[in-house]
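Need Oxysterol binding, putative's 3D structure for a figure. Predict it.
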Amino acid sequence: MCEYIIFQPIINQKKQNSINQSPFLQEQKQYQSEIIKQIQDVAVENSNEKKTPYISDYHKNDKNTFNNALQISKQEQNLAVPVIRTSFFSSNEQLIDEDDSLQFHSFNANTEFNNPEINSFIKLQTPAQQGRTSQFQNYKLGVNLEEEGGKKEQEQENKGQNNQDEEKQQEQEQEEEEDEDENQISKAKDSNIYFKGNKNDLEKLQNNYIQQLHKNKDEQRVQDAHSGGGKFCGDKGIIQTTRSVGKFIIGEIGRKIISGDFNLTQVSFPIKAMIPKSALQTILYGTCLFPIYINKAAQIKDLVERFKLVITASFGSFSISNTFLKPLNPILGETFQGNYIDGTSIFAEQISHHPPISYFYACGPQKSYKFYGYYLYEAKAGWNSLTLKNKGKRFLSFKDGQKINYNFGYEYYSGTFMGTMKTETLGSVTFTDFENKIEAIINTGKVKKKPSDYISGEIKVNGKVVSTCYGSYLGFIEFDGVRYWDFREILPLQMNVINCQLLSDHQKRQDMFHLSKGNIKKAQLEKEIGEQLQRNDAKLRKKHHEQIVKQSKGKK
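Structure prediction for Oxysterol binding, putative:
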């Protein structure tokens, strides 16, 4: 049984039409709707009927009392605003009437609204004052919507144009504050420290990196390394925006499922959680040490030593390539071109929409080596984590014919909604030279009493161990006690992005352009337009492929 009964006024249809013609009263109506919405939220939480809304009837005398108190004519057609309905019983009988239904809310004795205006807007009566149901006039709303609206309209007119200008200025300031909050990630700067030397300095480093590092015996890791392993996010703005986006995505998915729409591919990820870069560019961050180590590998003949350099270049880039800043998903057919100061060229193209496949290709100076393969991500979300598995492959071939195949580990993001937000690269990476029967398996997170970013493994030739690997992809890498990489001494190279004239080039994306300017709303709109064009393009490509297959079968 309810401790309090709060009536929602039934607004007359004819009077409602006249109210709609007044801009101020439209605003007042919206304000009242917001209040009612908050009332409904509290009513659902505090309902004594286990949060189950349904219609309850009422006694005829009580209806008359209620209508008279609100000065609503029985002859006029009424418009009832939807509300939460709960059951009610009088002290001696159930309220029954087959003609109409009275709308009311139930609250407990401790109900308090966040908005103080709501508390003054509604009159509650204590249980001690509660009488029979015929005394409904004591429970009605404290104001009549139509009369109150008329008074407020007159007050608004008296304030004049200056007050309107002040309101517009406040709205503009609020929008600017919201835009600033949304730009937390898009304006995030690259905090990495890059190699600043010229080509000659780079060649010296290639030939002297072991001598340069031999004095370093400590196990220092990067500043944002977490004590338990991986990198933690220390930017409160990024954490706040990322978590708000996560909650938004969950809500969007829930709404689509409730509505019966199970096609979740059209749930657009909010662009405010992204940086103005294409994923085609960020997947190539894994080549940031190639001008040092892979160029050196191409100059030597020792195949095992090549393995060491390839492993070092791959794991040493993790501190750069693993980040909390999400790039823009590539659009089908999108391309990227770049290079490094040593002459290494890098390319990427989005070749598939479903599944999303990104193909990459890199070529060393004078074509000394070729690095190619593809990324194929598969995401799995937990209640407070996200796992990204890369099912792609990588291939590295040298002029003398040696070819090394290797896979990817997986990325584990934890603290997505609560706790410390961090990212870790886990799993095993296997490097294989089938022709020369050389294999290396490097494991992460399996070094006893060490953080999860520590690595360990062995290089084998014909099944025999010839070298052991130890270190941390956030600090240093050693083979047989000799240090090959230290984040304090060997800095990554920053790629040069080529301004290509191809219309497919990633820099032609309008959502990226507006995002870089901080125009989040326009960027989001352009992103959704691009996604729709991508879906249409994918259908056309599929249709064309089916025609090609059909024609080839006909020729046979």
